[in-house]
């Protein structure tokens, strides 16, 4: 069993602690959520000394299992006021696992203004002054740290947004090229890191051994089936590698579920211009990278590198939700403007979904014109300049709506809705409303059966079956997040009877256990129960499990309305 | 029985409606809170079309009863997200009562950007374009409206803050000199008026008869005793007329309960400089008015007019809580700077308590230096200039804390704490925590028995007796607010056995009823029950009835701590 590495950010001290019994066998989201419930007072200020920021590799991370390199970050969220887990690819998860670190816990809070950075390697831990990294963006930070600590070092860092403790702040991870293309985006966890005055964390596993696998042969056999499953599924084997997640622009637009101009309609006239097809063509033409893994051992490779008109690197990890948020939601139709907005978010350390929705609200409130990419870039740049406008929009959609007196703000639990309209994709709508995370498609991706015909088919416009769909997916997702697996493995798992048993087999081979698929489902349930309990203690009620008023309106082209009662929604996670 | 005047702000239409049975006999806060519970969906957006802004004269308003001219304004609060009642003096309450209007209800919301104004007189109602009043401050608005509609007309208006729908926005009332010296300050009701695009409401009772009093002789006799009671009490007969509410600066400082530098200690080194004694001396010297009524028929006369160094009018209605908020809380020690901040708040239409606490948070977050009056005036001026900084601070203390990443923000239910430290004046601390209004001293002014030895004496530093003190005062206050009586009558009522019976006698004589003092208490309870029910529907829980973490710290000069459990607090309004 691994160790917990606790760092006191006020005293600049650290301790390694044998993982206590209560946390035994937990990893990823299972560990972060359990620790937050047990150790963080639910009514504490998210930026205060009593909050904790916890990083935990999934329990399969560091093993040779395909697509198991996701790292969970957890805390009480400055954005939602509830519990938060946000996971990302990158290099850190596998390295922590190899160093035998189950959880990295940032505690307390310094009184002064000085930033520190943390270096973790096989020799131990150093807590150093952050020096001239302060006030720098993530591109500069990561480049400096790779120069100093070597290429392929794992990096977690915050940009100007996290330093300002903004609710939209992310924690970025160095991707496989050392750029900040991977993000713990949602829920403002970068602000928690900023409040603890930690600018960056460097993780180097040089000299560390491999992660122990008890039954290597059994593991290898199961992993072989696992890789084949992922490669043979049309989504993980074809769609995602070819066009990245942006393959969804045309698909969701066709389904009439692409929220356009602040959720006024489900089709965007210029969807073609910002589609995955258009993106892939541009990447090819300009010499970018159309398909890339977000962490070693990924076989799906849905990430990418996007170049500018001059053929120079502009951004990477350019995703569907980002393109939607800055595109259809704001009616900006230039993919280059959208790519620049994505780059700024990666550099300043900001959640692209929250920021895209926020720019739409800024347009709604008359701060900048609808569809004006240049104005959007200028406004977003204010965050990096520490300007007052930046302190408004950097705090997200609801905050910006409040600053501007806008009453049409698409949030649940104060977090901006992602790229699928809940009225035209009700499975994901139920997830938005009920997940303890605040509106989040990744918490229970009902798009599967609603639109992609993965794991069966459930009418996206009708109520029937969508609560059950969301429930099943939320439970499964929580377990996937605990394993450190990429969410996209769910496509293959849902369509393969052998999916979940294969995951169980790998776990059993790695740890010498005898888990059944039911045990994995039970793990997912227990995670959700812990998260709901924290939120209840923090003051959340059924009122927080609703969509805002604006979704009572009709939604063209469909005439579907949001027809779930509060009681319906309360039943979704009642198990 | 009077009529409800409902105005549809979208269609620019109005209807007079016989007061329905459910609202019969209710006035002031009793009516606004009941209507909001019955007619406003608890989860609606406070700035959306489903919120309503309701003005209601107290049930004694318009009668000859001394100190009965308070007007209640109610809505779902943009600041707290809960139910709100905020009452003020001025001229409107008695005039509405004389026009036979029990309640004035602003409904719906226009889609465009044009502002309207409403003129109500004995001939009916006109809804007119607001024309060049738009973007003007309340001083200009009221001056223009008195020029056009005659002196002594009742005016309700919003300044630049209300137009921007800021959470700190007040609705100001013309005082007896036509200046915006009276405020429906707390809870951001000016933002609700702004969202409905109503710039001003003019109320003229010319030609309207007197308010009917069924038994004139009995009324006259009871009112005579009432006036004597008010004149003979040391607080309402001496302290308040002599020094205004600012008499409290030295008293509360002496008690070690004057929150200084964002609630770090209970004594301010420069309390003398901002005391009521200093203020009265300055007013006398410069030719201001040391004592003035806030509405016709007031015998306490705690208002005032404060002149600048040149002997010209600077501000009026200069109150203890304002002086504390801009003074001890921010450590600004110049009374002239504080008076200028008060003037700006009246002009832009802002709650002085919320804004003073906010400036302290802006100092806490490094936006301006501690104690710098000039910088504070400059920063507050940004609200009138529609600048981004104004959109931050105009939204109040919590919002500003969030914008700046400050974790030390004294709010309950998102509303800033007033001028009495809850650890050194626990009776009012219990009120802050438990009133449905958000932190509000006027909701249950425990300072009486805690510090002023009015209505008995209860140790301000101990837990014992303070829950009961707050409960009793909250019930009585709700009834006082329903009657349209000034809260300060409570001093005399608490110290006179004949107090409450005299109020009952006046009510019985006015309406031909047979109310007992117990009926009045029951009315107070029913108001609080309605308010709690609304808040529960809006998602409030016991978590919202707590003080924030920062009050767990010790509080010099006393070593008192905040020692109420959640269960204690939940019992306070459990009846």
Describe this structure as you would to a colleague.
The structure is a homodimer of 575-residue chains. Chain A is an alpha+beta fold. Chain A has a 6-stranded mixed beta sheet. The first copy, chain A, is globular, with a radius of gyration of 22 Å. The model of chain A has no long low-confidence stretch (mean pLDDT 97). The longest helix of chain A is centred in the last third of the chain and has 21 residues, at 517-537. In chain A, α1 packs parallel to α21 (517-537), α11 (335-348) runs parallel beside α13 (373-384) and α12 (352-364) runs parallel beside α15 (397-404). Chain A has helices at 28-39, 92-98, 138-149, 160-163, 189-195, 216-232, 234-243, 248-254, 276-286, 320-326, 335-348, 352-364, 373-384, 388-393, 397-404, 426-434, 447-452, 466-483, 489-495, 499-511, 517-537, 566-572; strands at residues 3-8, 13-18, 53-57, 71-76, 83-88, 101-107, 116-121, 124-129, 154-157, 171-173, 182-184, 198-203, 289-292, 303-307, 313-316, 411-412, 415-416. Among the domains of chain A are: 3-203, Aldehyde ferredoxin oxidoreductase, N-terminal domain (Aldehyde Ferredoxin Oxidoreductase,  A, domain 1); 242-419, Aldehyde Ferredoxin Oxidoreductase Protein, subunit A, domain 2 (Orthogonal Bundle). The interface between A and B is large, with 40 and 41 residues.
